[in-house]
Each structure stands twice: as structure tokens, then as C-alpha cells.
Design a protein that fits this description.
This protein is α/β, with parallel strands linked by helices. The protein contains eight helices and nine strands.
Length: 215
């Protein structure tokens, strides 16, 4: 008894509305209420959040130190580990309300080894309280598609490594690449078990290759 359609109301759309941007940030309950009201009263649709926040917490090892700095519109991030350092750069666009990768996190075989160390030294724990509160606010007004981690290769292509570096890595560093994929997949399984026990009902892994990955 409904007509299925997806209005273009992603977080970037709402961030383009000055009143919304000034009133709250995307992750707040106030922002959620504003978005639900927008769907219900402005466009007469059921609310749909296609990138619902994950219902788990990520705990990095104390051996991994993350430093992030911003100079103008450029965001620099460094990951310091006992086996090496990874760096990435992103440029924030005030016009598009999103970031563009200008330096990928993984660019060579040593980067793969450092990243594997980071993955192996990461753990996860459930965090259902926030999701439960959001679902209570949502009620029968719509649906959440709750974020789940994508398969390893997809996560590489969506930003960690992107297409060019991924092609070279698969060809030039196949043993190291395959081993990293197995480690990431094993960690993903830990997250999937947490999701399965959550109050969420629909889960979504990111599959959108947009301006955040391709300038």
C-alpha cells in the first residue's frame, strides 16, 4: 500500500540547509527528530536512514596512536604503530559538504603490513543504547538501514586504497594482500555477531562510490 521511492535526503543534503546545520549535528537525537519531521511533513514520506550509525564501539590498542590535524581545508591523519606509520590526507569542500581523498592510506606493501597490525590490534564491543534510543524516536515513522562493515576488497576500493593502488597491490603484493583480506574478514565476523544480537533489523554495508572517493 506504499509507493517505494528514495528522496535525495542524505546527510550532505541536510548539511546544505543552514537552519539544520546550525541547529544540530547529524549524530544528535535533535537532528534525527528534525529529519523525521522533514520527511513526514515536508515531503510526505516515511523516514529512511540508509546509513544508520553502527551499534558497536571500536577499541584501538594503546600501541596505535592516531593524530589528526587540519590546516585550512586539508585534514592530515597519522597512525603511529610499533611497525610503522600510515598517513592520509583529505580536503574538505565547503561547497559539497564532503571530503576528497588526496592521499590514500595504503599505497605500498609496507603500508599493508602496518594496516594489518592495526586491524589485528583492534577490538569491538556492543553499544546498543544509542540505537535503542533512536529506534524509540523513530517508532513507526520509517526505517533504519544500520551500518555494517563491507567486505575487505570493497572497503579498499571505497577509500582506503581505491582502484589504482588496489590493482597494483593485488598484482604485486598478492601474498601480503590476501593475508590482510583474511585478517579483515575475521574481524568483520566479530562485528557481524554483535550486529546480529542488536535491536536492529536491517543492515547495510557501504557501496556508494561518490565524490568522497572520486574527485
Amino acid at each position: 500500500d506504499r509507493i517505494p521511492w528514495i528522496p535525495l535526503c542524505s546527510w550532505t543534503y541536510f548539511e546544505s540547509i543552514p537552519d539544520y546545520r546550525e541547529a544540530s549535528d547529524w549524530s544528535s537525537l535533535k537532528a534525527l527528530k528534525l529529519r523525521i519531521d522533514f520527511y513526514k511533513n515536508k515531503i510526505n514520506a516515511d523516514y529512511m536512514q540508509w546509513g544508520g550509525f553502527p551499534c558497536y564501539r571500536t577499541k584501538s590498542s594503546a600501541k596505535v596512536e592516531v593524530k589528526s590535524t587540519r590546516k585550512g581545508n586539508i585534514i592530515y591523519t597519522e597512525y603511529h604503530t610499533p611497525v610503522g606509520t600510515l598517513t592520509s590526507e583529505q580536503v574538505y569542500s565547503e561547497t559539497a559538504h564532503t571530503t576528497y581523498h588526496t592521499k590514500d592510506l595504503l599505497e605500498n606493501v609496507q603500508d599493508l603490513k602496518v594496516y594489518q597490525y592495526m586491524v589485528e590490534n583492534t577490538s569491538y564491543e556492543s553499544d546498543y543504547d544509542s540505537l535503542t534510543e533512536q529506534l524509540n524516536i523513530l517508532g513507526e515513522e520509517g526505517v533504519f538501514f544500520i551500518s555494517a562493515p563491507p567486505p575487505p576488497l570493497k572497503s579498499f576500493l571505497l577509500g582506503t586504497m581505491r582502484l589504482k593502488n588496489a590493482i597494483y597491490a593485488i598484482h604485486d603484493y598478492k601474498p601480503e594482500f590476501d593475508n590482510l583480506v583474511k585478517v579483515i574478514d575475521s574481524k568483520n565476523q566479530e562485528i557481524y555477531r554483535i550486529l546480529a544480537e542488536s535491536p536492529g533489523e536491517i543492515f547495510l554495508d557501504a557501496a556508494v562510490t561518490g565524490t568522497g572517493m572520486i574527485s
